[in-house]
Amino acid sequence: MNAMAAPATASTLLPARTYSSARPVARTAARCLPRRSGGESMLSPSPLRLSAGRTRRAEAARASAAGAGGAPAAALPAALLFDCDGVLVDTEKDGHRISFNETFAERELGVSWDVELYGELLKIGGGKERMTAHFNKTVWPAKAPKTDEERKEFIASLHKRKTELFMALIEKKLLPLRPGVQRLIDEALGKGVKVAVCSTSNEKACRFQQ
Fold this sequence. Notes:
Layout: H1 16-19, E1 31-32, E2 43-44, H2 52-65, E3 79-82, H3 91-106, H4 115-121, H5 127-137, H6 148-171, H7 181-190, E4 194-197, H8 203-208
Parallel strand pairs: 3-4
Antiparallel strand pairs: 1-2
């Protein structure tokens, strides 16, 4: 027969983080009941209970951990570390992609990246690497140079212009914070939690979005 443990009474349950500080509670042995006619014994497990002293200490620990509303107070992190692109601001879809397309249009390259295509290109790290991989896979624009060295310079010039257009979007505050970001940051700072941005994005762009 499988033995089923009876649930502990409410007064013996402790929040997870305070339970680890209490002394281990030994499980009481199951009582052996009279055997059935077939010789099989039935086990009746005794519920886990704390002694009166331990119960009082448990209740005191739970009360100490409870917040003003009576619920256990949640532990605060020491710091919140954010990435920038796609976390604080949806910069990839509505910022970098738009700036790439504006750059392509200015140079009359006949290239445009829609949301679906750009989502695939994001698997490639780095804007210059992204353009190079795309042109290598499809076809280089007719206005692009032919040699590898010249193409590197061509890609670098495209990326520089893209960055200028992207920064213009940032400076004009055309890329708002994602929903809930401002509230989360304000609450964290209000409770003394340090907040920082850890990103490989352009530092100036990160500072403009703070």
